[in-house]
Batch of 4 targets.
Target 1
Amino acid sequence: MQDTPPSVPDFTQWPSFPFEGEIRVKQLDDPVPVEPPRRGEADRECTACNAPDEAYIWVGERWRVRTMDRPTGLPMVLILESRSHLDLGDLPNLLAAELGVMTVRLERAVRSLDGVARVHVNRWGDGSAHLHMWFLARPYGRLQLRGTFLSLWDSILPPISEEQWRENLAMVAAWLAEFGGRPLAEPPRIQWQAPSSLSAQSPASSTEEAEEEAASVIEAADEIPEAESTDGDANEVDPTGSTGESVATDPPGAVVRSTGDMNDGDGDGDGDGDGDGGADVGREPERDATDSAEPAGGPGHVKEDAAGAGGRAQRATAE
């Protein structure tokens, strides 16, 4: 005699249940006498212990936080792990106390993101023997996603944009770093382009950029370089606030470089683009303000002034 399949439970009628239509309950498998080892048990390697810090968005002395390798349907999905290979029931008192602090801290960080109403905290532990806690952000206003089935909706909903995903990761990492540790997630780069380069961009290059944008968060963190100056010191901001225009404190006749001369691309600031930092060959050097300044009116006025001075000296002697 075959077992009669159980009736469909009432929660299939809940608004939060993500499926509709005819649903059947699976037959329950027979129990096994010995459960297979989880990852990190027996001879199975531990994925968390072998993962480098670069695979995480934030790392501390005893805890690390990671995410999925790509955006999903929820605004944020994070995993809190202990550095030590311990399960929940194996935590000593110090780590057990810190787990409570880290749980509250990470929940607040995720809830601070725009568009997040609640943060669901889950722990299953059936796949890995290394402690890991899940933090799932429920979007604000999506009442149908409330409750038990949020983790299912994460796989059903269309993924959020990668730019928004990376920005959320960077904000959470920065929040955690305010209390210590090291943030590793960085915000998305801004692709600065001149209008002319946008129109001249080839379809092939557009495809390549799209492939780069689809990289996982770990790959993206490796590709984002530190701030570097490609134009040497020429593009650094003058601490005096000078914009390259002459000001009232400049002596008369002083030569003032414009910002266009400074940004000549060779980094020496002489405006010639040759990178030697000196005056151009064949160019007449600028005359300093204190070198042989001529009076207004030209050299003729110098002779007239000298003649007039001699006549006044002769009249003074005669008198």
Target 2
Amino acid sequence: MGAHTAATDKVQPEETQEVRRSFGLRMVVAVLGLVATLLTSVLAVRVLDVRSAAAFLGVLAALMLGPAIGRLGLGQNAIRAVAAATSPAEVATQVVAHLRAVTILSVLTSPLVAWLATAVVTEQRVLVVALVSAMIVLETIRLTVSDVYAATGHIRWSVAGTHHSRSIIALLVLAVVVLVQDTTTLVTLLTVYAAVSLGLLLVVAVRLPVRGQAARTGRWWVPMLAAVIAGAQLFAVELGAFLVGRANVWLAGWAFTDQDALLYSTASVLAMQVTVLEGLANIALTPVAARLWAEGRRDRVFALLRASATVSTLVTLALVAGVWLLAPEVLSIYGDGLDGAAVYLSVLATGGLGMSVFGSCAVLLVVTGKGRAAAAAVGVSVLIATPVAVLAALFGGPMQLALAGAAGTMLLFASYAVACHLALGRAPLPTLRIKQSLLVLAGRGPAEDDAPVEVPDAALAAAESPGVTAAGTIAGGAA
């Protein structure tokens, strides 16, 4: 810590500019993407029958879980490894290794995810499963490409590869298809979605930094295996977040009637959008935080993450309050018969506060290389929350499942704060200093926290270990 100079204590213009450009552009595209997701779900509910509409909403959830499994934590790991690379050849090696790994993993795992997501489908299920599997593979590869661009500072290309961009384009194409066809089926909608995802992947892949000499070495499997091993612990973070907070959509499809499943799925898809600010902030901050930690500017990392948590929590509180007040009006755009989902939406949205309050702790565990601590926190949370959710669905109903889902989300993200305290001595939690937080994020506030951060020597040694860096973990990771 004492090695800091006056120059390093100042806010770096490049760092601030990257965060602001990334966050600003991502926010604009995310807002449009959220509107597109909402309108797409409205379109599906209005043009499909109850069973097919519930299946389509389940597929939207699968497009979150499928890439999480297929990437095995490699998205966050790619950000760390590429950002820490010291030459174009090393960048190319890491990019190719991560893309190969996620392609193989997603091809192997996507059929199972697709089968689970389409439990309510009774007609043409084999074709539906095949389409959803293809969508998951394409989504997995494209999101990894987006992470690579985030790590290299190509913000516009990174944003173009996000699921928000895909949602915007897919809505436009779906609207045209629905208008020109007399009847629209689930297979039609999924085919359009898959075609859009393929086209977008082809576009965003054109500027990938894969021309380095190291990317063409014969032993291609060595860096790929190292990337998979390094990302495995981070996978637990992504998988746990889905199982606790999002898999309830599938549980509803298995346990409830078609109408109740549709009500719950609609509420769950809408509730996912409440925490968009936290997700965007984490994506924008993770590459910067990884580089700052590697440079030894650990106080700055805590300051940025704490400021992000403060602002995100404030916005999420406002959104949750709005949901409680306006949920019936929001659901009315889907048509008649969905008013009953209002209370489920409100409860699930409230659970999202856990992500806003404690989400920065997950980022800190990632950038400091504490994947094992994060995985342990996820494991405990899943062991508690999953049985509770299953029992709520089987012996209760949609309301009980919503309560279990909201409580499970809060438990999961609170466990990250506990893990941060145990591994690093403190956690980046929200404060009441809203103005100061805004200034820190804008690059106009103090560069460091008020108090020095004492990180245990063992934690620093693990984060700075050359072996860890070589494996691709953060030494020095958001649809």
Target 3
Amino acid sequence: MIFIARLARTTLPNPPRPALATNRRRIFPSCFKPSPSERTMTMNMISNLRGAAATGRGLVAVRAEAQPKTPASIPELATAFEAFKATHTQQLDEIKAGREDVVTKDKLETINAALSELQAAVDEQAKITAAAKLGNGAVIGDIQGDPEYTAAFKQHMRKGDNADSDIKAAMQKGTDADGGYLAPIEWDRTIGEKLKKISPMRAESRVITISGAGFKKFFSDRNVGSGWVGETASRPTTATPQIGQVEFQPGELYANPAISQGLLDDAAVDLEQWLSSEVDTEFARQEGIAFLSGDGSNKPHGVLTYVEGAANATRHPYGAIKVLNSGAAAAFTGDGFLDLMYDLPSEYAQNAKLFINRLAMGSARKLKDGQNNYLWQPSYASGQPQTLGGAPVVEMTDMPPVAAGNIAALYGDMEATYLVVDRIGIRVLRDPFTNKPFVHFYTTKRVGGGVHNPEPMRALRIGTGT
């Protein structure tokens, strides 16, 4: 759709100025109707935008002859939002006049999709910048890295049973009871940090590392008696609090990447980088599903299973995550979001964020407050998130879509709500026989998770009533 190419040529001062009516008419003419060739070109442009963000080089211009943009690309995002507001206002005016134009509707959805792509690219750039600041220390808790074992592990990956005898001897300290060898501690950290970059639930939750079989957290029922007495008055016996517990039992994630023996023999191949890049995407995909909706059977208990009426609503001593309705049978409403946000206790509001999937965000983008202002606002500075009603937005692919009865949004402090439990020790089993001439590395990681406090979170269900 050709409007994106024109949008790329238009700059907007930061902060943006609202008086852009003339430019909007030029960028989005009323006769706009993309041809099939323009649609194809626009899809290629959007693919280029996403690819540029993934490489960390910033957004590239959608015109073939243009030079790469600066990493933030905030002016493009702000200009697109101004165009979105103008077109949405035009659509609302047409609906009020009883003459909704299909061309206007198509144009609005196209701009909305482009806004989502631009915001996603800006968010990805922020992740890359934040990741660059992470340390590379090979320490987890009090466990230090072992350079000798790391070197031996690399040789084992390359040569297997053909490794020298001293290499085999050094590998004995990493032998796992279930077969294979434990990856070096610094490799464990590398994979964990990569998962944190690409898994929004892991990035927002509290993460602890254990070395045992499981983790138990104890909770008081807060039933502590108290009162006021005089200096010499008797002290009556008070109630004694009861202790409950929640257990977090890790399940096992696995991946089975393959590499040719020729590449293994190449000393220039970074085996740590190769293994982490092969397994982190698959691990992150499985974790994203389990942390939200996992049933706890050989996997984490998902946060959505703790809401009122769900499978784990009675699992925690403090009760279930409170649910509020959106205010419409099959859609979001502005009042629904405001009710959701103001229902959260004030002590948790400072770190609260809105968790929602991308398609649902497209619907929420059209909402306005009582003063006709849009609740959604784009990123206006590099590293700052998009917001809805002033709350930072975190896009989670595996959140349910907007449909009657679905929990389509969560709002609260996820770090104070959800606990991810990593058991230290990524196990790697070398298999050169199953798929010759490739060598497989059957890789497993034990991960658990569940709600450790339901009070800092609220859930929004699509529906009416109380």
Target 4
Amino acid sequence: MAVGDGGPATPGGVPPGRPDRRPGARTAQQWLLTLLPAFPVLLLVLRLWQLSRQDMSTMLLLVQYVSPLGLLSALLIALVWAFPFGVLVLGVLGWLLRISAPDRFDPERSLLASVAARTPGWVFAGAIVLAALTWQLRFLPTLLMLALWLAGLRARYRWPDRPDRLLAVGVALPVLAALVAYGWLGPAIVSALRGGELVTGLLLALPPAGAVVLTGPVPRRLAPAVTHGAAYAVAAVAPFLMGAVFLRAAVLPSAAVEVGPEPPATGPVEVVVGQVVTVTDRMTVVLDERGNVRFVPNEEVRAQVLCLETTRIPRSAVRAHAWPVEETALNWVMPRRTVIEPDPRCAGRVAPPAPAGSPAAGFPAPGPSAPGPTASGSPASGSPAPASPAVESRPTGRPDATAVPG
């Protein structure tokens, strides 16, 4: 009996002696596909719950004012790397099951088989391109390995009687790709190992060599356990990784609100640093850094400053031809924001008054229509406050704590 020959099958497609489990498996797949869209909603709710410091009233306030489009945008930007990862891993495992144990390959019984049989090639190609743009450089060798595995497995299924094509796609192409990768990444690998960054060195060094390992079938008896076990492991780890990344993503604008008595009155000035929830015609609602909701009357808002995130401090000093290993290709080629001096108000300090004749350090606070601000950034004495809140973009000077993995 040839490898992969499971013997005669019943008309329903199930080998004799094995119970027909397709209805139960199909039901499980339907439940999975039904609950899958609920996972992003769960992440959004958990993010608001975390932002409110587990206070139900605060969370309900955020739900009332936070833009759903803003939440979805933050979710998409933070987790854009997850889609190609899931598609490529499930595709590789599904095609490995297909060529290793054809008798166990049933799209009606296995999610891996369903992904391999029903996902067109252009979806895999699009996932590879998206991953190349959104994964960090240190994960691109892993992308190369997954892409070569997928190409080799698909070629073995499509051309089983063409040894020349199998040799070209399954052996020659991975070896050539590994040589090119090592030639380009060699200095970065040496730099990582010399600098004590073992994990980065292994991520750059091992995948190109591993690309030549899995372009063919595994033993038929081991194929279901290997493929399904790997799929279960990924399914168990991926939600926690995605949650850890998204729960650190910003969903509200960070700002510093300078609060003080309305001119011409004098008194102490306070800077409230936090995240702006909403601005109404009477109140500016701010969620401060301690998780407390501050309702600031617009008459007391002297200025607002948007605290932009500065470029995060890199954890790795390794570069490949001036490309930092923690940068994605998309971030590396896109224009960079001009670095300017951090505004002291983003650190909770009151800004010093601007010199006479110089532009205002901040923009005026919300209020009814009136003449523009003076050089100090506040309305002229005796004049009502300007019409709408204006915001100045300033970096915080604090490192970005959110690092989206590739």
